[in-house]
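seq as requested:
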Amino acid sequence: MVHPLSWLKSALGRRDVAAGAPPSEGLSPSSVMVPIRSMGPAHRERIAAHLVALEPHDRYLRFGYAANDEQIQRYVAQLNFERDELFGIFNRKLELIAMAHLAFSVDPACTSCAEFGVSVAHHARGRRYGSRLFERAVMHARNEGVQMLFIHALSENTAMLRIARNAGALIERDGSESEAHLRLPPADFDSRVTEMMDQQMALTDYHLKSQVRQFWRVLDQLQAIRQGARERLLG
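struct tokens:
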């Protein structure tokens, strides 16, 4: 007998390449659709958990210094979800495994500028999540009228600088630090429709995972109740 939710497990299994599970044989990470959703204040705890779980060297590359837990918590507490945009990739347990922060400039002289930062959990490396998040952030920045996107990174952060260079950014190195700046084309019909579709797909994926988790949680509780009742009858 086929389990009534086998189709859901199958569907989630295909998407789990984009959600932290090993890619299926014959599929490369770059060929799999990656749901990337915008995040709001309700995701603050998941953002903190993701950043705190980063290994020390990854924290160093993300923040430019060896950020401790207290500094990370302060950064998360100060996130401005009304001004900036945060994007996340979640696995089927709804754990945040990769995220990007698109910070819009507050300098009156540079109102059409934004800065990009990204982090990926160690176990989720090698799936081009950083590149996917960068592409998503660039599209949103274009649609918001951003003309210049900046990336401040340590010169040893070759992965981040490679993403910027592949996008055509101009990179200037100053000792241990580098700055990349990418001039963005104006928004068009395609960029607006594509972002809208990507966001809707990511929201649908997130809600599906949430519903499946809730279903299995309730099922586990029912099974525990039935097992307890069976043991009492036999005892």
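The longest strand covers residues 96-104.
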